[in-house]
Amino acid sequence: MIHRMILEMRFSVVLAFSVCVPSLVCVADDHSHGTTGRSVQPPTVFLDKSPRIVAYQLNRLDSERLLMVPRQTDDVKYIPVYEAILSRDGMSPQFRQESVAALAKLRETSVAEETLAALEKIKLDDRQGKRTAKVLAEMLLDQPVATLKQSKAMLEDAASDADEPFVRSVGLAALIQIGDAASAWSIAAADDESTLAWLDAVGLVPGSPQRLALRDHVVELIENAKSEKVRNHAITAMSEIASQPSETFDLIAPFVADPSYRSAAVRTLLRVPVKQRPSKTSQALVATLVDLAESTAPAERTTAQFVDAMQLADQMMAAVPAEQAKSYRNRLREVTVRVVRIRAVEEEMRYDIPYFAVEAGRPVQIVLENHDLMPHNLVVTAPGALKEVAQAGAVVGSAGGWKDLPFVPALDSVLAASEMVQPDQLDRITFDAPTEPGEYPYVCTFPQHWYRMYGVMVVVKDLDAWMKNPEEPANPIGSNRSFVQAWKLDDLQGEIENGMKGRSPHIGARIFAEASCQGCHKVGSEGGVIGPDLTEVFTRYKGDRAAVLREIIDPSHKVDAKYAMHQILTVEGRVVTGIILNEDKDNVTVLENPEAKEPTVISQDDIEEMVQSPNSMMPKGLMDQYTQDEIFEMLSFLEKADPNKTPAP
């Protein structure tokens, strides 16, 4: 029997969609695509039956069919439909927001009350339940402060009496968010479990100023807590408070010597910016960590905790005098190779480390951790070979090339490569660094990912000398862009009308190409065909500039399940990721990647598990390296390119 669950996965290209929901509204989205041949019939659901029978009917539906069930806000019989959508794993924000607003109207309650009620029903015993609970918590805490204040009594009840600790943390975070940190702290003081819930609430609080006000209480718990568990949570909570980083480093560093607190302490210290780490404390800590490495049993030198500790030691070598650093480095080489941990950032299709350095000819281990929602790999290439290797990898496909690894071509310019790492998994690749100093790119070779997912391994003769005065390598694909801002629609919406005046379509077209949009999307006669044609995007959105801008800034706001990515696990352990083109009782037909020559057909009998994405296949953060003016230039370009749209003055 196929076990269906929802797992958030993403793909690298934008596929447009439009879906008409019976008895509701027709939702047109810029993410429609014509390749899918699926024809899904709306389900028949009897909403006049008992609540138990209605719930049974709805639970049997996948997300796509659930969204086809009629729903309106003029009859309480639709409440079970909205409840199912709100709490369904993997549902996109658009439909959750629609559902919580509808429930508040039908029950004459508030959005905050309905969100909290749904949160309390979520089962937190698996990854998907936890992810859904996190999404609902963010929805609640994102409500205007004035709105949350109206539900203060309810929030206090949740903070004090909820059975699930996470729900208590959400209630406490909401109290802090509305400016009643005193009440939250009073509740936290009741017992250790309440204190733990308060500490876990620190990272949930949306605003940095609100978190800053909690720092003194966190410090007090770090210094005076009698419970080891409370102190560990307090050390972790300190990593969520960005103020006074140097003081935080001095406060937490001594706990590295204690095995009971080492793991939490190292993780918190790693989040303190390198330039904010006091030199004296750093030097003492390096000595502690080198001693730790030498005393750690070989079998334990591959654990996440050990890798974290060695990463921290490596980062702080620059604070140590040169000769002493060289001595420490030699001691570490006797017991472990140089380890570099690289993480795939969730939903952003990028590595968290843009470059790192290794010593020529020395062994190095790269640990690739995938915290994104779809598979990624890491391939180290010869200088200047990134694009060649990535494009050849797409041709090789899942059949494999270099050492039979999927999407890795058998080229001399491939120096090292990982497996295709699944979500929440990791892979280690160990190799000797090249003997020739230089800048060696690394890249994800899954089709189309190389536009954004890359970095540089800098090979140097003397690693300690380089770390004393590190030089950022050249961007391997020639981009000179740097981070500007993590843009949200609210940052731009109020400026749209004035911001669109006097724009040049030539500048907008250049930005459209530079931001890699043109690789997937066509405007007029130019551009790619992987994603939707954007020539008439303003016509589709009826000239609504804010709606088009939302699709650029917040691509996951609207996602139709019909066009979501799926991950299929076969009974033999094979993982297939792609868009379902067709599904019947015998087979599932999947398009694995945009450059696949033929779809993959999998027998239903061979499927162990099939899970669906709620997110857009377009990564977020595409415009975070562009200014407000540049974003409006590109938006103006799309508007003026639409032959059916009369541009605003």
From TrEMBL:
Key words, A-Z: Copper, Electron transport, Heme, Iron, Metal-binding, Transport
Transmembrane intervals: none
Keyword Secreted: no
InterPro entries: ARM-type_fold, BlueCu_1, BlueCu_1_BS, Cupredoxin, Cyt_c-like_dom, Cyt_c-like_dom_sf, Haem-bd_dom_put
Pfam families noted in UniProt: Copper-bind, Cytochrom_C
Domain Cytochrome c: from-to ranges: 503-642
SUPFAM superfamilies in the cross-refs: ARM repeat (SSF48371), Cupredoxins (SSF49503), Cytochrome c (SSF46626)
Protein's name according to its UniProt entry: Membrane-bound dehydrogenase domain protein
Species assigned in the record: Rhodopirellula maiorica SM1
